[in-house]
Amino acid sequence: MTTADSKKIADFWFDPTCPWAWMTSRWMLEVEQLRPVETRWHVMSLSVLNENREDLPERYKTFLAAGWGPVRVLIAAAQAHGEKVLGPLYTELGTRFHNQGLPNERATVEAALIAAGLPVELADAADSTEYDEALRASHAEGITLVGEDVGTPVIAVDGPDGGRVAFFGPVVTPTPRGEAAARLWDGTLLVAGTPGFYEIKRTRTAGPSFE
Question: What is the pTM (predicted TM-score) of this model?
Answer without folding.
Answer: 0.94
